[in-house]
Design a protein that fits this description.
The protein has 191 residues and is an alpha+beta fold. Helix content is 41%, strand content 23%.
């Protein structure tokens, strides 16, 4: 008798879980196209934001045989204003996806965090304009570097207080974008 008392609720719970899983699967199937469409819209809006005056972009197929550059995408603005490069770096809360605008002359024109799981009030501050506008300064050929207090030289970016890991991750993503653009520009110009 006791086995039946334990078995009946377990069967009922199993059936409930199966029905809910089935319904979640249906919901996922019904919304996946809309989710993908919204992700594309968000990425396009980010590209336009980081490259002032941009209207439309085309995907550039460019292969880099280096695992450090996995998952990047390179888009050319159709009128020749510049490029938008999407890169990822490991932050405190996981991957940070950054879109970096680069002019046709190779200058960073904007930085936008497309996706991040950083801590609200700390790492999330790397998305603020006060932080991202530091990348617009002339780096004079050097990579951007994170410093803790005051930027004293070209390419120095002051970290968000309490969010050095997040600041370094965004900086790494921007540096990767600049490197990807430089590799692409070099290969394009030597062909």
């Amino acid at each position: 008798m006791k086995a039946k008392e334990y078995l009946a609720p377990a069967v009922v719970l199993t059936l409930i879980c199966a029905v809910i899983s089935f319904l979640l699967g249906l919901t996922n199937e019904a919304t996946k196209d809309r989710i993908a469409e919204n992700e594309i819209k968000a990425a396009n809006a980010a590209r336009i934001e980081v490259l002032p005056g941009a209207q439309d972009f085309e995907d550039v197929t460019f292969f880099i045989d280096n695992p450090d550059y996995e998952g990047y995408s390179l888009y050319r603005e159709t009128s020749g204003l510049g490029y938008a490069v999407t890169t990822k770096a490991k932050g405190y809360g996981g991957d940070i996806t950054v879109v970096t605008g680069i002019s046709a002359e190779g200058k960073v024109t904007g930085v936008y965090t497309l996706n991040s799981s950083e801590t609200p009030g700390l790492g999330k501050k790397t998305e603020d304009e006060a932080f991202t506008e530091q990348y617009l300064a002339d780096r004079q050929g050097s990579q951007f570097q994170v410093v803790k207090n005051t930027a004293k030289g070209p390419g120095e970016v002051v970290a968000v207080a309490g969010a050095t890991i997040s600041s370094k991750a965004v900086t790494q993503a921007v540096n990767q974008a600049v490197e990807i653009y430089a590799l692409y520009a070099y290969s394009r110009d030597t062909m």
